[in-house]
Structure formats: structure tokens, C-alpha cells
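Troubleshooting log. The previous structure file for this entry was overwritten by mistake, so regenerating from the original sequence record. Sequence copied from the archived sheet and checked twice against the printout by T.R.
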Amino acid sequence: MDRIIYAVGFLVSFLIVYLLIPPLAKMAFRLDFVDKPRKDTERKLHREPIPLTASYAIFAGFFLTYLLMTRELSWQTGAIFIGGVLLLVIGTIDDWYKTKGKDFPALPKLIIQVSAAVLVYAAGIQFTGFYNPFTADYVLLPVWLQFTLTILWIFGVTTVINFTDGMDGLAGALSAISAITLFIVALAKGQDNSAMMAIMLAGVTIAYLRYNKPPAKIFMGDAGATFLGFMLAVIALDGAFKQATVLSLFIPILALGVPIFDNLFVVIKRFVQGKAIYKADASQAHYRLLRAGLNHKQVVLFLCLISMCLSLSSIILLLVDV
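Regenerated output below.
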């Protein structure tokens, strides 16, 4: 694929989101679909109502660009699209509850997120195995293990990106860094489709950051954060995990290192303390850094710096090629 096509994909996805967000923000105020400050929780850091409609711009920017650039209407494209729609719908319901100061039950979200992952697996985007670095033989995993690992990966990344979305600019910036890293990996491996999806995801997240950087003018809510996590997981399965050796399996894990490692720590801590694993609180790294005395921008820059270091490590692993 001509490299210029990636630049076009990035620009088109960026422009769609950049142009859609202002009218969607106005619509949010008319519908009272805004995230209101709450004094009873340290997780609400903003002081003014913020529109929750960026997710629709992100979704439209990604899929409109993908169809325009690839003109591909396959079962895999359909599965990713339907999975994205499911997450957008359940995320919107969750966000609507939040606008009323209520919490949406975790079980429906769990069912929908797993269903989206199963759709992707059924379409053939799955983790099937890895190459043995000593014999160069491909180790094909049992079907039940392929299914389990694929679902756990998609569900896990979808969830951790959502959990990271607790501070202006943070989830968008970390997603952009991860998307750019996965783009470089896919480009190096000659995986055109994964590279196109990754660069478009970078385009929509960077455009979103134009409005979400501190102080944020708009939020993507659960609908947008789960969609970004879902797409990052799918891109990794379609690209970085393909033809992977034991060592290069860590490439996508490092590319998504900050949200993965932070939330693994949080989940283990909640489990040890006997708390509900899925219930949102203020135990993520960004909240801990705020309590340690860093200001908002310092926290975002610090976590982005760590994310870039981990991403560079993943690219080094790619270059080592073992």
C-alpha cells in the first residue's frame, strides 16, 4: 500500500472528528447530556458541566474514514462495526445514567463487552498461537484457549482504557500513543489493514484531544473510552499478535503498558481488600499521583512519558525480531 494513503487516512479521520465535535457539544447542552460536577466524589475533577458526545464523532470519524479508504465490506469489518455499535449504545446508556447522578449496573456492560469480543473472534480476528523461537515451528493453541485468550484480551483492553478515562486528556493521549506504536509495528510487518486502522485511530484520538486537553471542553464518556479500548485490542490482534514469537508477544502489551499495568495493580489491590473489582473508585495511578502532590498537567505528562518509554521498548523488541 502506498505510504501516502496512511497520511490521507490520518488527515480525513482527524478532520471528521475535529469538525463534528463542536455541533455535537451544542446538541449535548440542548439534551442535557452533560457530565455534571459532583462534590461527593474525588473522581469528578471538573467544575462545570461538560458535554458527553465526543464518542459519536470518534466512532463516525473512524468508520467513515475506514470505509472511504479501504472500501472493504467484509464479515470482519461488519463484526468490528457491530461490536463498536454495541459498545457505543451500552456506553451511551451508562453515560446517560451518570448525567442523572446514578450508576448503571455493571452486568449489562459486562455482557455487551464480552458479546462484542465474541463477534470479533467469530469473524476470525483471534489469537491462535505463536512461533517457537528455538524450532521456528508454529505452536497452535487449542481452540478453547484461543477463544479464552482472545476474549480476555479484548475485554481487558476495553476495560482498562475505560478505567484510565478519569482526567482531561489522559485516556485520549495514552490511546494515541498506543495507536501510533501499533501503526509502526503493523507497518514494519507489512500488515496494511492493521496499519490503516491504527493510523485512523491515532487521527480520531488526536482530534479529540484538541477539545479534551486540560481544561476539557468535551468528554467521550464510557461510550468513547470503551470504543477506543475495543479498537486498540482488535488492531493488536489483527496485527502485532500475528506471526508473533514468545518474546514479541510483549510488543502489544508494552504498547498499552500504562493502562494495562496500572489497572492490573488496581484489580489485584481491590481483590485483596475484598472490594468489587468492577466498581469505579479513585485508585488508578492518575488519582494517586494527584494525591501525591502533582498537578493535573504534570500527571498527564508523567504518565504519557512512561507510556512513550514502554512504547519505545515495544519497538525495540520488534527490531530485535526474536
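The two ends are 26 Å apart (CA to CA). Archived copy saved in two places this time.
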